[in-house]
Amino acid sequence: MRIEELAVEPARLRLWGPRATVEISCPLPGVLRLRHAPTSSTVGFLHPQLPPKRSWAVVGAAGLRPLDVTREEGRVRVRTEDVALELAMDTGTWRFLDAEGRELARSTRVAGEVKSGYPMSTYRSWLTLHAPPGESYLGFGEKVGPLDKRGMHFTFWNTDVMPHHPDTDPLYQSIPFFVGLRGGVAWGMYLDETWRSEVDVALSDGTQMAWESWGPELDCYLFVGPRPADVVRRYTTLTGRMPLPPLWSLGAQQSRWGYESAQDVRGVIRGYRARDLPLDCVYLDIDYMETYKVWTWDRTRFPDPAALIRDAAAEGVRVVPIIDPALKQEPGWSVYEEARKRDFLVRYDRGDVLVGEVWPRPAVFPDLTRDEVQRWWGGLHRDFVALGVAGFWNDMNEPACFAVQPDVGIFTISNERAQGIGTVEGKTLPYDARHGDKRHLEVHNVYALGMAKGAFEALRELRPEARPFLLTRAGSAGIQRYAAVWTGDNSSHWTQLETSIPMLVGLGLSGVPFTGVDIPGFIGMPSGELLVRWMQTGTFYPLMRNHAGKGTEPQEPWRFGEPYLSLARDALKRRYRLLPTLYTLMHEAAETGLPPMRPLVLHTPEDAETVAAYDQFLFGEALLVAPVVRPGHTKRLAYLPAGLWMEWPGLDRPGAIVEGGRHVIAEGPLDTVPMWLRAGGAVALTRPTKHTTTANWSHLEWHVHAAPEVHGRLYEDAGDGYGDSRLTTLSGRLGAGVLELEQRVEGLLPLSRAEETIRVYGLPYASGVTGALSHTFERGVLEIRVAAGWTKLTVDT
């Protein structure tokens, strides 16, 4: 990609040669955008000018920052106060540098080709990056494998896979973003292309990371760190952050493809309540629809949806129905007729409405890549919202299509049938299907994003006093702005329990913090042991849902008998005790982009051992969780980063305090989840309840591991809506025989409790507490009872 000319604007640099163009800009501090167009003279009409481009993901680039451009012999150097880039004129390759001059990344090849064809031309664009020895690559969205994806190959093409396995690729989400980490220094790259793409992460050539897009451009955003958390913050500033969800969506959720009637749904709720199992949400799968027509009810099986929703609400349970995008092609059905008359449907290349088969047959597809169709689709939620439906579950939105009625195409100029008509990859629509003026090959990966956007924006209008809740299977970069994500149709295998951890952590690193997987697997026959271990792990998933497929054995917790029912109940109650901390972490994710489930390396990037610890995670920054994820195991190896860690299985049995920076053998009998509380960590807990009510906690316990510095946070509000809130910051200092604790409060939300409890671990002795109502010191635990609203405490140690 030879460069011969350049034009400098105050906030943009454009460089070009006979065939190619590159534009460089700085949309945010610490972020450079490189828009490579290696075939711009062939693809465009105004070479070297590049046409305007819509980004589905980028929302945080309000303006461009000034660039300092200098030209030297054979190269151009671009600087801002945070980053620098050097570009070679003879090859178009570049070096990405931080403010200290360290080389973070280097391209070794930028190229492209165009082949004219019918019904559409085909493109290939390539970008190759140097992959230094020892550099780790994290993220890439919903992908299989360990935390470090070096030595793997991925395709970004949203795909309906049932069931998926530990080596399945592609899956349902396409997020071409990663964090590179070498020597404790992090950087990142996001490829802002909706086209089908692939990446070889130093697999074919151990020294190269090779990207290939099936589009005519490679629109890249480069991010500096220096820490992984800095890269994630910058990426989520660019692509948007998760809105704070309603509290109830963090409670226990129950689902099954196979609850075939309102009686079944009521029975599930009664089953939970009769066995003292917390529950906040029940899902309705496709059985509630009339002949699989979305936005309808089968009145034989669900004769009075409003009554069902009211009865569930009386038990503190929300009802969330599944919504699929495919519409039954049924003449006279109002939804289909309106979509047809308003030209809202995806079409064949020759212009007729594309007809396929999903659950409805025949089926047509609303073109949810267009703004006007999204608005229409959002309005279809109105009647369900009026019934009291609390949230919506978007499924089959890759979009999935089991079969397409063939389009034979038209004759070419050589009077032959065109080749390549109707090419389909996976269970979806053909490459050449038409979405307005775009082909499916270009917009396939953002179809689900358009569906979620239309629903989210409509729910904000239809029910402005409540926060929207959407759950989606498919998505792309930016999906976090609208929906939670679950990882699709997994299997009831122990390997899938283990791989759920790096999969969810990878999504979190890729800007999607509100995630979960089907517990204890969608397809298969889980054992009671697998159920318990998966629920223990799922206690810490941001979204905790039990879900199974039709044709499998029922897997509600009581189906497995004892001791598994009691252990499942313990896991659910532990979840509800943790809600103040989880809710606070979700608020932090909404504010900073950092997910609740975090890899160890996020906070200790200088420790190379943490990259390999992919079957454990941090819950926030203070709690380290290493669940048992293999059958029959009652011990496991865990890695503790540097510092002091207190064994804390069950959140109520303080154990030994151990030095980190090493591996330890953790005890993990079937009733135990190995956990540790970091020295200086402060975690807020409450009492378990049968369902959520408010996030203004009437009972609150602070659990503090004493250290020279103590930090904790608690965010509270009504649990829904947009009213007053309160953010409490707990800090502490331990030294010279005294522990000082202090809390500061921001916000206008009144307290709903009169007292709080503080449990302090790690003190050798406590002779007195100033500022408390009462205190006890037994077995190494200092328990302090304080008036709510306390500001300072002093403990003599």
UniProtKB/TrEMBL annotation:
Domain Glycosyl hydrolase family 31 C-terminal: 593-681
Protein's GO biological process: carbohydrate metabolic process
Protein name from the UniProt record: Glycoside hydrolase family 31 protein
Record domain Glycoside hydrolase family 31 N-terminal: where: 21-200
Family under the similarity heading: Belongs to the glycosyl hydrolase 31 family.
Domain of life: Bacteria
Residue ranges occupied by any Glycoside hydrolase family 31 TIM barrel domain in the UniProt entry: 243-585
Sorted UniProt keywords: Glycosidase, Hydrolase
Single GO MF annotation: carbohydrate binding
